[in-house]
Design brief:
single chain, 743 residues, mainly alpha, 69% helix
């Protein structure tokens, strides 16, 4: 890239017909190259950026601006843009993708405008290369990175206006540029490098006086520094970019910076093997090979300094490139360093520093070939076309979350975050559940201290038969790594509560979860369910369940469990009925709520027909539930004229579970009371005794039936057996006395 003195100053008409043609070309090229991404869905972290339900109101917009922590990062302009977009697009993913592509096109066109104002040759080519370079795919195809495309528009728009101010020294362009600079900072603070970039441009032009060039930018440096420091604080304190995972010495950070610069330079010049998460390097000063990166970067810088005696362009480009990368070189912590020290979206703006001189070199080379205008144009368009093809292919991995995770794992098997995210994606799909478990296990093999993976793997084990102990072990490990992890405390309480003799310990962990997070509705609900098992704790259980509902009033399971607790408390039947009905309003297909509502109604005088209706509704949802068939049979047996229907339900239950003694007993008692069915009743009563010989009730019923059939001696034996089991069984005593009193 030559000195600007080789070019004649020009002020192109950016609004002319040629500009409109360029804009049309750029838009068409971008839509073609990014077409696979336009069909993509929401990806990892998008839910933290696309406006969530709590922020969709006008008050939510106020929170975006005035409540630090209301959004993942304090970028109020970005989240205001998402707020507006949600008003327009709702949850339609296409709208967000089109917005990102449009912003990227705008940024590329602004780059062309800046280069033309600087009388730079090959301005359109440089903009086209920036538009279609595959390292930009991550910033454009990933909705979360609208912070890059939007901030770039403000950044480049501010630069263009400042260059106009530099020519006219008018206050209007200056303050307009300053406003855009502040908007850029409030979209993404990496744009704080703009004033330094402007000074590099002025130095490249051969002028850098303190009064004319430096002094007007001093307020910009102050504002940019304040923004950068605030972002560094939020990264550390609110997002978590601190701790052992970010601990490095000054020497390690210096070595890292050298390697990062060369890595990004290499990806720009040879964009092969691009991926969402690159392997995380180990920075070890004891390894001589690691010094080669820093040495290479310093040697390149020294060569460019030497070259600057003849032409300042190459050094200016490198200063812009490295300076724009400064926030992500490793001197300050950013949260993604936990996964990798480099990412394509980190060099979105910085790439301009390499793309612009590369376009100039390509332009000069084509002129020196001595070919005609058409051939030269074809040659110059070949590079953007090739980059466009690479971009099209790179966009394929952004179709959906699973494609992104699997492609990243294929290119970087050590990407533990992608294994974890893939597991989260798969775990709620029954046919993919075993894969989810395997991915969680692989995550922990790669990163044993991943407390969230331990917790999620424990939750997966808890869903598997016979794995409660394994689940508890995973929760305990998550708590050991992160003692303040309320979710793991809650889950450990649930796991322990499923085992015998662990009630006290389970309650203790659930109480700890609530102490760590008082508004944790799930922990209140689980504590309530656990306390229901202790009659003396029933009042506290109801209180906890009501607390859970106060925090999450639209949760049908909370209403269901509160109803279950109320059903255990004397005189609370109507309250239980009301809660079951509310659960069904929130979830109409809630089979358990229909069944338990039937049980509650069956206890209330005059509500037996309604109980039957609820049991029938439950069976329409789960026809293979034997217990519901039995409960329906019990209810039907109490209704006049429904005995035959009750018998049918008992038979249906026994078809599903022929080994249930209570069902045989209920059917036998019902048949014994029906005219002419005593012969059918006795085999059922005998089956009940055979299945549960230690049941005094079954022995009594069989004895009573045998006595009714005239088999007095056999009846007496069963009644005597009932009294052996339960000496205070009055009905059995009376029946035995009647047999003995009869001659």
């Amino acid at each position: 890239m030559a000195s600007p003195h080789a070019f004649r100053p020009a002020k192109p008409d950016w609004a002319g017909p040629g500009a409109l043609a360029t804009a049309g070309l750029f838009l068409a090229a971008a839509l073609a190259a990014y077409f696979p991404a336009l069909r993509g869905g929401f990806l990892w972290d998008d839910d933290a950026h696309v406006t969530g339900l709590p922020l969709r109101s006008l008050h939510g917009l106020w929170r975006i601006w005035f409540e630090v922590g209301a959004t993942q990062q304090y970028y109020p302009v970005l989240h205001s843009a998402f707020w507006v977009e949600h008003r327009i697009w709702g949850d339609s993913v296409l709208g967000y993708h089109l917005t990102n592509v449009a912003l990227h096109v705008a940024a590329a066109l602004l780059l062309v405008a800046i280069l033309r104002r600087l009388s730079f040759p090959a301005a359109t080519l440089a903009g086209l290369v920036f538009l279609l370079h595959p390292v930009c795919v991550e910033s454009v195809a990933w909705i979360s990175e609208q912070k890059n495309t939007l901030s770039a528009v403000f950044y480049l728009g501010s630069a263009l206006l400042y260059l106009r101010f530099d020519e006219t020294r008018g206050r209007g362009p200056y303050f307009a540029a300053l406003v855009l600079f502040v908007l850029a900072l409030l979209t993404k603070s990496v744009t704080a490098t703009l004033p330094a970039a402007l000074l590099v441009i002025f130095w490249w032009q051969g002028r850098l006086s303190c009064k004319r060039e430096v002094l007007p930018l001093l307020p910009w440096f102050v504002i940019g520094a304040a923004s950068g420091l605030f972002t560094a604080w939020t990264e550390a304190k609110l997002i978590g970019a601190e701790g052992a995972g970010f601990s490095m010495t000054a020497l390690q950070r210096l070595l890292l910076a050298g390697r990062v610069v060369l890595f990004y330079l290499g990806k720009l010049l040879w964009p092969a093997d691009l991926t969402f998460i690159y392997p995380r390097w180990t920075v070890d000063p004891a390894q001589a090979s690691q010094w080669l990166f820093l040495g290479g970067a310093l040697a390149l810088f020294a060569a460019l300094v030497f070259q600057a005696r003849r032409a300042r362009g190459p050094l200016a480009s490198f200063l812009f490139f490295a300076g724009s990368l400064f926030p992500v070189l490793g001197f300050v912590n950013v949260y993604p360093f936990l996964f990798s020290f480099v990412a394509d979206h980190f060099q979105y703006l910085a790439s301009i520093g390499v793309i612009v001189p590369a376009a100039w070199v390509l332009s000069v080379a084509s002129m020196r070939l001595g070919v005609g205008t058409a051939a030269r144009a074809s040659l110059m368009l070949a590079v953007p076309a090739l980059l466009g093809v690479l971009t099209f292919r790179q966009c394929g991995m952004y179709r959906d979350a699973e494609s992104l995770y699997r492609t990243t794992i294929m290119r970087n098997p050590s990407a533990w975050l992608m294994h974890y995210n893939l597991a989260v994606t798969l775990e709620n799909r029954p046919d993919r559940f075993p894969e989810a478990v395997a991915e969680y296990e692989e995550t922990l093999r790669l990163k044993p201290d991943h407390w969230a993976a331990h917790n999620n793997l424990g939750s997966a084990y808890l869903r598997m038969s016979g794995r409660s102990a394994d689940a508890a072990a995973q929760f305990e490990e998550a708590i050991r790594i992160n003692p303040s992890f309320a979710e793991a405390q809650n889950n450990l309480g649930v796991a322990l509560g499923r085992g015998p003799g662990n009630h006290v310990e389970a309650v203790a962990h659930l109480r700890t979860a609530i102490r760590l997070r008082p508004e944790y509705d799930g922990a209140h609900e689980n504590l309530g369910v656990q306390l229901m098992g202790e009659p003396r704790s029933l009042d506290e259980a109801i209180m906890e369940l009501r607390l859970a509902l106060r925090l999450a009033p639209e949760n049908p399971e909370y209403h269901y469990n509160l109803a279950n607790a109320l059903l255990l408390q004397a005189g609370q039947g109507p309250g239980a009925v009301a809660e079951y009905r509310e659960a069904l309003r929130l979830r109409p297909g809630y089979a358990e709520a229909h069944s338990n509502l039937g049980a509650a109604l069956a206890r209330e005088p005059g509500h037996l027909p309604e109980a039957v209706s609820e049991y029938e509704a439950a069976l329409r949802l789960v026809p293979s539930n034997a217990a519901v068939h039995v409960n329906l049979a019990h209810a039907l047996a109490r209704l006049p004229g429904r005995g035959a229907d009750a018998v049918s339900e008992y038979h249906a239950a026994l078809t599903l579970d022929p080994s249930d003694a209570e069902t045989h007993l209920g059917l036998g008692v019902l048949l014994a009371d029906m005219p002419g069915r005593l012969g059918d009743a006795l085999p059922e009563l005998e089956a009940a005794v055979s299945l549960e010989p230690g049941s005094a009730k079954a022995q009594y019923c069989l004895g009573f039936g045998l006595a009714k059939a005239g088999h007095r001696d056999e009846a007496a034996r069963h009644l005597e057996r009932a009294l052996e089991i339960d000496p205070g069984f009055k009905l059995a005593k009376d029946a035995l006395a009647r047999i003995k009193a009869t001659p």
